[in-house]
Amino acid sequence: xxxxxxxxxxxxxxxxxxxxxxxxxxxxxxxxxxxxxxxxxxxxxxxxxxxxxxxxxxxxxxxxxxxxxxxxxxxxxxxxxxxxxxxxxxxxxxxxxxxxxxxxxxxxxxxxxxxxxxxxxxxxxxxxxxxxxxxxxxxxxxxxxxxxxxxxxxxxxxxxxxxxxxxxxxxxxxxxxxxxxxxxxxxxxx
Length: 190
Known about the structure:
By secondary structure, this protein is mainly beta. 0% of the residues lie in helices and 34% in strands. It is built from no helices and 14 strands.
């Protein structure tokens, strides 16, 4: 009997995102329903950082915008094979406000789900909603927040007490502990 070569499933353009690892599984089917197919790059790799495992996992971390043709060969257990040219495009991740891109997209870089809020992370999350600033005012920023601490929680930073005397921040200022043993005074002047 004749052994038919594997048939690749159509993918369209594969989009990788710059400085993110592409993890894409190439898929082909054996018309005779053989148990396994073995995949390999046909010819030289278009980029030394691109690799293809024998089970069809294509990995690549692009460093700049580019479009490459990746020639993949699938071989069945009887040695019949076929080759497909895949177009892989490296593009900037369109996610905004600290959102992250998935490991790949198909057809268009805008055809993705960012890990964030809003279709392209255009909705900034209010990180102050959970009141992360215990003793201060929370200021929401794009992709984060900062705390403006109340003055009395930083008053001891100027070291107003006598050396080796404990300083405690209190509303409106600070309190100095007892003077060292053998000395008298208010803790500030001993």
